[in-house]
Design brief:
The chain is 38% helix and 18% strand. With 254 residues, it is of the alpha/beta class. It has one domain: Alpha/Beta hydrolase fold, catalytic domain (Rossmann fold).
């Protein structure tokens, strides 16, 4: 789905639909297109879907961390005059959504996380990059999915370009360290926002036990599994992901 990226001051985003706002947060190596399935489904069902581009590589290195991404999101919501939203995040995006919900609970009516970091220390970048080794990057990209064919050449090329850009590589590593520092195990029990956890049964990046722990620690949470699915359920099984998320939102009255 090719939607025009809107640029307003320091903010870039895509948007479609009218109604209840769903704000989507992409992951460290993910882009806006990762959520094409969500963007094609929910605007047809009374939701306004907004995907901001996170400033992963545009902040000063010293400011490149999960907390500042949450603050950036707060500024974006103020810019869009959005008071209360549904937040959906994958991987690092899920972690940012969780931290944002802790920092600004009154602004989040519901939370959906999938393949989220925030609990599992190795989730963000254990052996990241071997620069210049395309086959290694291809293998790492394929490992994100249950079906390696989902890691298209376009996806692999984008990851390869990122890890071979020195500035982006330094910031990628800074984000990984920040994610480890911001482990949320102690914060989650006090977070009462209704939370939907959708997880791939075959996630190698944030293994299934991470989802079980999220459900255990978050007081008002439900966990849904998708079989034969890796770290990015909304890409690998978009129809199942959308149906699970939509059913949960309807059940909870959102």
């Amino acid at each position: 789905m090719n939607l025009e990226v809107i640029k307003e001051g320091k903010y870039k985003y895509i948007e479609k639909g009218e109604g209840t706002p769903i704000v989507i947060l992409h992951g460290l190596m993910g882009g806006l297109s990762n959520f094409d399935g969500v963007m094609g489904y929910f605007p047809e069902r009374g939701y306004r879907v907004i995907i901001p581009e996170l400033p992963l590589y545009s902040l000063m290195l010293i400011n490149t961390n999960v907390r500042n991404f949450a603050k950036h999101l707060n500024g974006f919501l103020r810019h869009k005059k959005l008071d209360e939203v549904i937040l959906l995040g994958n991987s690092l995006g899920g972690h940012i959504a969780l931290l944002f919900t802790k920092m600004y609970p009154e602004k989040v009516k519901a939370l959906i996380i999938t393949g989220s970091s925030g609990l599992y220390e190795n989730a963000m970048g254990e052996s990241y990059p071997k620069r210049g080794d395309y086959e290694y990057i291809k293998k790492k990209s394929q490992d994100v999915f249950y079906d390696p064919e989902v890691a298209t050449k376009e996806i692999v090329d984008e990851v390869f370009a990122t890890v071979n850009d020195r500035n982006k590589l330094l910031k990628t590593l800074a984000i990984a360290k920040s994610a480890i520092r911001h482990n949320m195990a102690k914060d989650l029990p006090a977070m009462t926002t209704p939370t939907c956890i959708i997880w791939g049964k075959n996630d190698n990046v944030t293994p299934p036990q991470v989802a079980v722990d999220f459900q255990k620690f978050l007081p008002d949470s439900e966990l849904f599994w998708i079989d034969k699915c890796g770290h990015a359920a909304m890409m690998e099984h978009p129809n199942t992901f959308n149906e699970l998320m939509h059913a949960w939102l309807e059940k909870r009255g959102f």
